[in-house]
Amino acid sequence: MILCCGEALIDMLPRTSTEGEACYAPYAGGAVFNTAIALGRLGAQVGFFSGIAQDMMGEVLTDTLKASKVDISNVVLADRPSTVAFVKLVNGQATYAFYDEGTAGRLLAIEDLPNDVTADAMFFGGISLPVEPCGATYEALCLREAPKRVIMMDPNIRPGFIRDEAAYRARIERMTEVCDIIKLSDEDLNWLVGEGDLIENARKIIAKGPKLVCITEGANGSYGITAENVVFVPANKVEVVDTVGAGDTFNAGVLASLQSAGKLSKDDIASLDEDTIKAALSLGNRSAAITVSRAGANPPWSNEL
Q1: Are 268 and 9 in contact (CB under 8 A)?
Q2: Residues 6 or more apart from 251 whose CB is under 8 A from it?
Q3: CA distance 63 to 48
Q4: Strand 84-90 and strand 9-16: pairing?
Q5: Cβ neighbours of residue 8 under 8 Å, at least 6 residues apart?
Q6: What does the pLDDT profile of the chain (305 residues) look like in tens digits?
Q7: How crowded is residue 72: how many other Cβ atoms within 10 Å of its Cβ?
Q8: How far apart are the C-alpha atoms of 300 and 285, rounded to whole Å?
């Protein structure tokens, strides 16, 4: 099983009412939540760990997880509000305003960690990492479990959500050192290590510990980079409605492909060949292409591929 650990929230997406007024429509979302949903729909064995509110928005989240065949036995239900993100779209590109203080996800504490984890791999990332106390909670779980199972992280960096940049960078550094796989957009890579050659910068990340670095370049495609190999797979060309959930779905495609190939062990990730990397990137690209072709984070089911 792949256990996805991170935020679940309600995305408020801009719409036009029947009266012609600007309005917002609620959709289940959150970067790590989206990856879990996408994994379930792709047929992977997947579970989810997060704090979710016991309110009507939390009910939407848990119902969406179950409908996408995601195990929710590790979800921590809390009598607190749900996180909400208002989304602004400009030419299909999404920016976010988050409302997260005092929520079920934000207040997830170390005391809420599962004692036993049954998973071949764990996935971390999103807006759950730069804020407290949940950031410290997910970091503690990552560091605790990293010696025993594959760890993948996509920090999915939102600079506007980071209040203490030095502390956040230090957390990402500590988690990167124990990761087996890290996924970054080209913008994330530049934020972490500065402007420069993409391959050289990715190798700087590899020097910190990860065995596979996946870099996405939006409409161009994606790279899979190891100490020995550089694999590039061009993006599938589609008409973009919006980019909400694109990277999250890509992550799911990579993990689902590796799970299907029987490569979700630490030894296997350390010795991936070019064909296995190409297959993982290809499923990531194809899955993300369907997500961006429709509104919101609505990842594809396997039969849609």
Answers
A1: no
A2: 35, 38, 123, 125, 152, 154, 183, 284
A3: 13
A4: parallel
A5: 28, 29, 30, 32, 33, 48, 50, 52, 61, 65, 83, 105
A6: 999 999 999 989 889 999 999 999 888 999 999 999 999 999 999 999 999 999 999 999 999 999 999 999 999 999 999 999 898 888 767 777 889 999 999 999 999 999 999 999 999 999 999 999 999 999 999 999 999 999 999 999 988 889 999 999 999 999 999 999 999 999 999 999 999 999 999 999 999 999 999 999 999 999 999 999 999 999 999 999 888 899 999 999 999 999 999 999 999 999 999 999 999 999 999 999 999 999 878 999 999 99
A7: 17
A8: 12
Question: What residues have CB less than 8 Å from 226, skipping those under 6 apart?
Answer: 206, 211, 212, 213, 272, 277
Q: Is the pTM of this model over 0.85?
A: yes
User: The tokens of 88 are what?
Assistant: 């602004």
Q: How far apart are CA 14 and CA 198, in angstroms?
A: 34
The Cα 199–Cα 254 span in angstroms is: 19
